[in-house]
Design goal:
Layout (H helix, E strand, L loop, with lengths): L4 E2 L5 E2 L1 H6 L5 H5 L2 E4 L3 H21 L4 E5 L6 H12 L6 E5 L1 E4 L14 H8 L15 E2 L6 H11 L6 E2 L24 H6 L3 E4 L2 H11 L10 E4 L2 H4 L5 E4 L7 H9 L13 E3 L5 E3 L2 E5 L1 H4 L8
Parallel strand pairs: 3-14, 4-5, 4-8, 5-7, 11-14
Antiparallel strand pairs: 1-2, 6-10, 9-10, 12-13
Length: about 300
């Protein structure tokens, strides 16, 4: 049976080998740049620098900047706003697309004042912190909702016809990026070709994701996590011209980080697909990928009693 794990040279690896690699060995064995920062503060500062550098490079060419942005992590946004103010960076030609948003039990977008609202977090953590004279118009920030999925796709086609300049996904323990989870569940069977073509759409949030969000965001209260979501799809995420994958939430992301680095791309662990870029003709080629983490996420995978 073929191994599902391979190193940079295509040599098979066992699951145990992957889990026991030291943080220092991850880049060399995977062939993917893995940046391990001392702590979360340093991690957020580094991601903010990536955002600043991307905008500055495009500004110098008189070009707009397009980004697909997450809520989770969010610590990079205050750092980014501070750097924008310090450097006098002009963000008026920045166009952002949020990855996803929660929907309530009736499939409606949760309000901005809901404690789990991603739009609310972006307003507080990013937009309102940027100097008014330097920030993009609010109309250039796109937030998916239950009632604008086609409009989001049209905006991506208009403003990022060759893919966004920068995408900043995280990856959950079961492999999701944005709310792109394994699309096959219960009676639903989806081909990988169909999954890779998916764009902005409404989804059921899988039980494992609800459980993890409850532990991280709502003190273990599963009822506080909305049951549905709207998400950008693999088509637009994988078309990004540059992808920086961020692991930030602690030890429980160690498994996912190593799956992304060493597991062969599969929709059954969608984060592994981030190693690929989708060309305009549909071909899949290696992505310009970097991975960011702290020692908490980059450490070896272990199991023990609690």
């Amino acid at each position: 049976m073929d191994s599902i794990y391979v190193d940079r040279h295509g040599r098979a690896m066992t699951r145990q080998e992957v889990h026991r690699l030291s943080a220092e060995a991850l880049s060399e064995r995977s062939g993917i740049a893995v940046h391990v920062l001392p702590d979360r503060e340093a991690l957020y500062e580094a991601i903010a620098d990536v955002m600043v550098e991307t905008i500055d490079a495009n500004n110098r060419q008189g070009a707009k900047t397009t980004m697909i942005l997450p809520v989770g992590p969010v610590g990079q946004y205050p750092a980014f706003a501070r750097k924008v103010a310090q450097r006098g960076l002009d963000c008026r030609n920045l166009w952002t697309f949020n990855m996803d948003e929660f929907l309530d039990r009736n499939g409606r977008t949760i309000p901005e004042d809901h404690p789990m609202s991603f739009r609310g977090e972006m307003m507080r953590g990013l937009y309102q912190r940027l100097p008014a004279a330097q920030r993009m118009p609010l109309e250039q920030m796109f937030f998916p909702r239950h009632d604008n999925v086609d409009a989001i796709d049209r905006a991506l086609d208009e403003h990022a016809p060759d893919g966004v300049d920068l995408c900043l996904p995280g990856v959950g323990p079961e492999g999701h990026f944005a709310f792109n989870e394994d699309p096959c569940f219960r009676h639903v069977k989806v081909s990988e070709e169909e999954f890779l073509a998916d764009r902005t759409r409404l989804v059921l949030v899988n039980t494992s994701t609800v459980d993890m969000d409850a532990l991280v965001a709502s003190c273990g209260d599963r009822s506080a996590v909305p049951p549905f979501a709207v998400t950008l799809g693999p088509h637009d995420v994988l078309r990004a011209r540059r992808t920086e994958v961020i692991f930030f939430a602690g030890r429980f992301q160690r498994f996912a980080l190593r799956e992304v680095l060493f597991r062969k791309p599969t929709m059954h662990f969608p984060g592994t697909l981030l190693k690929l870029r989708k060309e305009p003709d549909g071909r899949l080629v290696p992505q310009n990928l970097r991975v960011w983490a702290t020692p908490e996420e980059a450490g070896i995978v272990t199991a023990q009693t609690i």
